[in-house]
Amino acid sequence: MNVLGISCYYHDAAATLVSNGKIIAAVEEERFTRRKHDNRFPELSIKYCLEEAGISSSDLDYICFYEKPLLKLERMLETASHSPDKSEIMVTEQLSHMLHERLFTKRVLSEKIGFEGELLFVEHHMAHAASSYYISGYDKSAVMTIDGVGEWATTVQYIGEGSSLKKIKEIRYPHSLGLLYSTVTAFLGFKVNNDEYKVMGLASYGEPKHIDKINRLVKVYDDGSIELNLDYFSFMYDPNRMYSDEFVELFGPPRKTDDEISDYHMDIASSLQNLLEETLIKMGNSFYEESGGIENICLAGGVALNSVANWRFIEETPFKNICIQPAAGDGGGSMGAALYAYYMKSDNSINSEPHTTLLGPSFSNEEIKKLLDERDAIYTKLSDDELCSTAAEYLHKNLIIGWFQGRMEFGPRALGNRSILANATNPEMKDILNARVKFREDFRPFAPAVLEERSNEYFDIDFKSPYMLFVPQVKEGMGEKIPSVTHTDNSARIQTVNKDENPRYYKLIEEFEKRSGVPVIINTSFNIRGEPIVCTPEDAYNCFLKTDIDFLFMGNYLVEKVV
Length: 563
Fold this sequence. Notes:
alpha/beta; Nucleotidyltransferase, domain 5; DHBP synthase; 20 strands; globular
């Protein structure tokens, strides 16, 4: 059975193909169009998925869309009815989208890819839940999804058992942890649905001095359920501003994008982050009791990308095992939609193969060489051993390298196949990367990639973290060894690297340790600020040329800059 899942029309359009329970391919549309967070119909992503599987649209048994548009329309109209004088612009805009896109997905599929089969729809949060539960390997699990909003739900708790997912309870719009976090993100001068992770990073520089103000925005109950004070919010009716005049009266003038970040902004970020963490812990503790003590938990939805909160969640709730969908946002909804449809339409047990994010396009050495020749690039072909030893030597000499290997990662994190790598032992490297390569804010930290079996020597963690979804503390005395990946609060958003899952990447770090004595390097995504992660050899070469990356390793080729 072949099932295609798609997400689009809000943000992070993507497609995922599942064949007989196995995830064959998954990719976000932005990687092909080079338009960050592209939300348009994922035509190029679908094309890639079909080509990767060697099938056509006529071979698809089902396509599943990641939400139910009519329910979303119902929510929009009902919300608008409470403030018709304020909501006219938003309703007009959303109705236009509905009538031209969402309500006619079947027609779009026929026109774009020639699909005439059965189209299914799944609730948005069920797609999130499925995206995490069905890759977890658990026979039974608590499942929790948290984001801005789907159709009506903003937070949902499920029990997964076998191939079934049963909804237990939910929090409904407009009461939303995700929208609360996004509102403060906007107030702090960052971009909604894009920069929430910047607020998380900024929070470490501040102190939670404004909890009293944050608490005026939201009431948190003992079980973690919440109720926003809607006097402070305008996202229900204003498409251009999420916070109200009352919010501004409480917090003062909003920061503009180019304004200096003050201690006050850092303290607001810290207060917000603290509120989020404490609320999630309450949710988790309550859900554990209500579930009868199920020891496994799966998380998804955009809030599950808050790696600082994830760390406190697993440390301070009774759950013993955790699975978080690496593509926890809407892009991952395409995976959830495909998996949900497959298991609802078949009697098969869950595929127990270990999950991988390496589900995007790959390029052969021949394809890479063709591009390099077309661009008159300077390059040398290396053996596998030469590749890793040369790259490690360059890192040890404090050179910055682009690392383009194998299949592209699915989700927001570059995990060793589309990465920029650097020396974590150099205390100046964080500032060098931010200024010369990434062109981004200087407060933002970089992630360490560490050999999996060595991770607990450097970090206070005793389980795998292959997807940069947790932020443990750096162990005492180790911060001095890896200063460029040790955040201001002595934490690090780590990636543990497994020898079997990515042998070339593992070998590189191993070779670096031979030279430096440290099995840790900096890993950041292969892109610059405002652009998606690179997909093709051409994307990588272009990014290489317009940054201060010193050398590019693509496949078995070492590429130098033309002087």
